[in-house]
Amino acid sequence: MSVRATWSDLRALHDRVDADLERALRRRFRLGMSEFDALSALAGSPDGELRMQELTGAVGLNQSSVSRLIT
After folding, report:
1. Cα separation of 32 and 17, whole Å?
2. Do 52 and 66 contact (CB within 8 A), yes or no?
3. Which residues, at least 6 apart from 21, have a Cβ–Cβ distance to it below 8 Å?
4. Alpha-carbon distances, residue 24 vs 21, 29, 49, 54 (angstroms)
5. What are the residue boundaries of the structural domains of the chain, listed by start?
6. For the segment 18-69, what is each residue's pLDDT rounded down to a tens digit?
């Protein structure tokens, strides 16, 4: 198997796991991955608070998207 095929297979597996996790979070908790990531980052901070820029980095979204997420 070529390196390219291996990476392609790994990417496809990652996408399936990500989609399955997203469905499970939505079904059980009515949360998406971004919401889960934000709550996880906040829970892991010492005082349960983060600046918007810190949360933006933790969630991996741009500031506009994080603002909508928080709203």
Report:
1. 14
2. yes
3. 33
4. 5, 8, 26, 27
5. 1-30, 31-71
6. 999 999 999 999 999 999 999 999 999 999 999 999 999 999 999 999 999 9
Q: Can you tell me the distance from the alpha carbon of 11 to that of 30, in angstroms, rounded to the nearest whole number?
A: 26
- Distance CA(42)–CA(62), nearest Å, equals 17
Residue 1, both tokens: 């198997």
Largest CA distance in the chain: 49
In whole angstroms, give the CA distance from residue 15 to residue 33.
13
Per the CB < 8 A criterion, the answer to whether 45 and 37 are in contact is no
Continuous segment of H or E residues that includes residue 43: helix 33-44
